[in-house]
Design a protein that fits this description.
By secondary structure, the chain is α+β, with helices and mostly antiparallel strands. The protein has 4 helices and 4 strands, in the order ααββαββα. It has one domain: Gyrase A, domain 2.
Length: 117
């Protein structure tokens, strides 16, 4: 997470709360993480109704303090609750930040997948 802190303009006092918010979202919703390329990460998330709205809110706030992130949210069909794909891209020179973000998001049960670097 230190790479994320280095490139973030969020006030220092607010960073622990933001990290905790990301961790809660990821712990409860991320099913799969795939490193598509050195500059792109794809996550599959599932959860209760309101998940997409929560992800949009959080990624919108992340973009305000870390403007190099590009987030793309694609809703998926779900038989109850919500499912979506979240793609995260960074420009050249921010690959280490994406790596830290992916490590934070990776399912703790080993469900994450690392691909093309």
């Amino acid at each position: 997470m230190s790479d994320l802190v280095r490139d973030c303009t969020l006030p220092l006092a607010e960073r622990p709360a933001r990290q905790a918010e990301l961790e809660r979202l990821f712990a409860g919703a991320v099913e799969h993480v795939e490193r598509v390329s050195a500059r792109r990460l794809r996550m599959r998330l599932a959860g209760e109704a309101g998940l997409a709205s929560r992800v949009r809110d959080l990624t919108g706030r992340e973009t305000l303090c870390c403007s190099f992130f590009t987030f793309t949210i694609t809703p998926q069909d779900a038989a109850g609750g919500e499912r979506l794909t979240l793609e995260v891209e960074v420009p050249a020179g921010h690959e280490d930040v994406l790596e830290s973000f992916g490590e934070l998001a990776a399912p703790k049960g080993g469900g994450g997948q690392r691909a093309a670097r």
